[in-house]
Amino acid sequence: MADVAVRLVQLTKRFGGDTTGRRVAKYVDDANADQGFLAVDHIDLDVNEGEFFSLLGPSGCGKTTTLRMIGGFEQPTDGRIELQGEDVTYLPAYKRNVNTVFQNYALFPHLTIYENVAFGLRRRKVSDADVKKRVTEMLELVELPGYEARKPGQISGGQAQRVALARALVNKPAVLLLDEPLGALDLKLRKQMQIELKRIQQEVGITFIYVTHDQEEAMTMSDRIAVMNHGHYEQLGDPEVLYERPRTRFVAGFLGVSNLLPASADGRDDRYANFRLSDGTAVRVPIAVIQDRAGTLALGVRPEKIRLLEEKDESPAGYNRVAGRIVHASYLGVSTQYIVQLKDGHRVTVYEQNVTRATKAELWSSGEDVVLCWAPEHCFVVEDAGGMAAAEADRELAAVV
Amino acid sequence: MTAGATAQPAPGVATRPPSGLAHRIDRLLLPLYTLGVVSYLALPVLVMILFSFNDPTGRANLNFRHFSIDAWLDPFGRPGLEEAVFNSLWVAFGATVISTILGTLIALALVRYGFRGRGATNMLIFLPMSTPEVVLGASLLTMFVSTTNLPFIPQGVLFPLNIRTILIAHVMFCISYVVVTVKARLQNFPRHLEEAAMDLGANEWTTFWKVTFPLILPGVVAAALLAFSLSIDDYVITSLTSGQTDTFPIYIYGASLRGIPVQVNVIGTIIFASAVLLVVISTLWQRRQSFRDFSSTRQVE
Ligand SMILES: Nc1ncnc2c1ncn2[C@@H]1O[C@H](COP(=O)(O)OP(=O)(O)O)[C@@H](O)[C@H]1O
Ligand SMILES: [Mg+2]
Question: Best of A64, A103, A104, A163 to disrupt the B interface by mutation (most B CBs within 10 Å)?
């Protein structure tokens, strides 16, 4: 069991409302407007030593607030923050062994790059010789040697980003907090910095807690991700697990494209559970996939996992087969994206690599009847708390994408 | 499609080709206007400087007779003038230091903290700026006189009036201007810089001196210059709170009844030259330190 770098216990933040209600808040209904806005809602979380951990979620879900409480810029309404086993909940920011890379970099405009990076060391009365050595080392690590004498106004956004990183890392914090640090960079630089950040993290071996609303960014870099929504996380796990086995409709929709079909349980044998889709088709799902999911369930399958066949074609033994009709095809070069309508009206997205079919004559076109087939192991099952929640999640997703 | 698009004039570019006469008037108008404004502002000053080199017959320095540098060689050559000038400098200096320190602290409190009475303080700060000076002066006078009835303020502190009461009066009206100036600088202050400083291990005190203060310094300097210039040429409030003490403006007013001596022009010229010098220096300094402009800190959100 790895050591825990940061532990959050029932961490809660409520903005506005009755500020004296620290004790009261916990017992009051969330909908109670007098009690202000619940930005972070009783989060329990362990971040391991040396881990690249991401908080992923749509704008306004409480990522920044969580990070700011860990950094010491925001007082929790309730709960506890432990840093390497020590309770730091009420410690001021400057007494925590944690450093932050701010989204807007927050470089000191009146100091040179050298003095910016040296700022933390100077506060700890490190000798001039040591400061020089460590600042130089750090600027090399972020590939900015020779920029010491410049002012923050004289460097580009990408460089400012690296300085901000160097300024935080030079202090060798127990944990580095990063709040959408690549948000202001253009796409190309962003991709480059993602790889760079991961390299630096592995090189220095410091725990990173990374906040982002970009699922691709989180998946590229993270060891583990917590997918946040409405002030708490809905699922926590490795990127692959979150993608292949999302627990909730929200997680399934937030990480990549997913097809969710309402399904009702229809018995099970020792390895597979049987479900019936609303058009009556029977579908098999490995029992292991269902785990402890309970309540109303929906069946999911990722678009790239589905193969399209003709009615007469054989599918591999044991595969799920569902009939549908192509309603839309868009050719994307590397692949083709189809929208297929099932008999009950549900629409399913399918990505097909342009390998076996590549020319226009070979590709499927609108109006053709097809059979969708996929391996039972490629199914996932999400808890689907009724149409209301589903519709809401979809709307939120539409707002994000 | 592309041809049609390129044929469109770019927005903001005049479509009317410059016609001969209209174009020439356009080009003349701005320089003429500028010249007019500059002369309007500069002429009185030039007259003051010119007449500091006059050698008038009689008392009144109203007609230019002979060029002379007599007055420049003996700028304090009138009884009471030297004392008045140094009183003015002393008051201006004291009022600047005190009002800049207090005003900056008030501005910080008003911008940074929510406290009971903050709204009222914000309003009160504007009072000295919006109340007629005569009213302020008269009220101050009444207040100073009435302290004679208070057992805990000894005679001679606030009454009889003296240079101390001038100083108190000047601090009072200078503070408003300092608060307003520094507040403007603080209003768009990027707070995340202070959070960054704390994040890097600086406590509140260090954060203030290493980050906040250097960044608001241009505002504080501007406020101090403003306070100094307001104090040194104040007449109305000073005349009501000065008692027997003369300041430079009071001396001039007194002298004007008999005829203003050339030395007044000399000292006026020196004050003007120092002010210009200060403005030039502070402009150069600000330009060199243009990074202190918050626009150079990246603001993304
Ligand atoms: N200082 C504040 N006062 C009031 N509400 C706030 C404050 N900071 C954040 N919030 C609210 O808390 C919620 C979470 O904010 P934030 O943590 O910034 O979200 P995220 O970083 O995930 O976009 C948002 O709805 C936001 O409006
Ligand atoms: Mg945020």
Answer: A104
CA distance B299 to B237: 45
Which domain CATH number covers A296? 2.40.50.140
Tokens of A209: 């807690």
Same domain, A386 and A355: yes
Q: What's the CATH number for B80-300?
A: 1.10.3720.10
Contact B196 A93 (CB under 8 A): no
Q: What is the DSSP letter of A174?
A: S
- Percent with pLDDT over 90 in chain A: 70
Compute how many other C-beta atoms are within 10 angstroms of the C-beta atom of residue A277.
19
Distance CA A55, CA A215 (A): 10
pLDDT class of A35 with cuts at 50, 70, 90: low
Identify which of B40, B278, B256 has the alpha carbon closest to the alpha carbon of residue B264. Answer: B256
Q: Which amino acid is at A279?
A: D
Distance from residue A231's CA to the centre of ligand 2 (Å): 12
Of A99, A110, A152, the CB nearest to B199: A99
Contact predicate A103/B301, CB 8 Å: yes
Closest residue by Cα to atom 7, ligand 1, is A15
- Cα(A95)–Cα(B200) distance, integer angstroms: 9
Instruction: Round to whole Å and give the CA distance between B85 and B91.
Output: 10
- In this structure, the answer to whether residues A319 and A269 fall within a common structural domain is yes
Q: How far apart are CA B237 and CA B240, in angstroms?
A: 5
In terms of Cβ atoms closer than 10 Å to its own Cβ (0-12, 13-18, 19+), residue A349 is middle
pLDDT band at A378 (very low <50, low <70, confident <90, very high): very high
Indicate which atom in ligand 1 lies nearest the CA of residue A40. 14
Range of the domain at A360: 257-400
Q: Record the tokens describing residue A328, joined without a space.
A: 């839309």
Domain residues of chain B, as ranges? 80-300
Instruction: Determine which of B294, B298, B299, B301 to mutate to test the interface with A (most A C-beta atoms within 10 Å).
Output: B298
Give pLDDT tens digits for B269-298: 999 999 899 889 988 887 876 554 554 444
Give the residue from chain B lying closest to A68, CA to CA.
B195
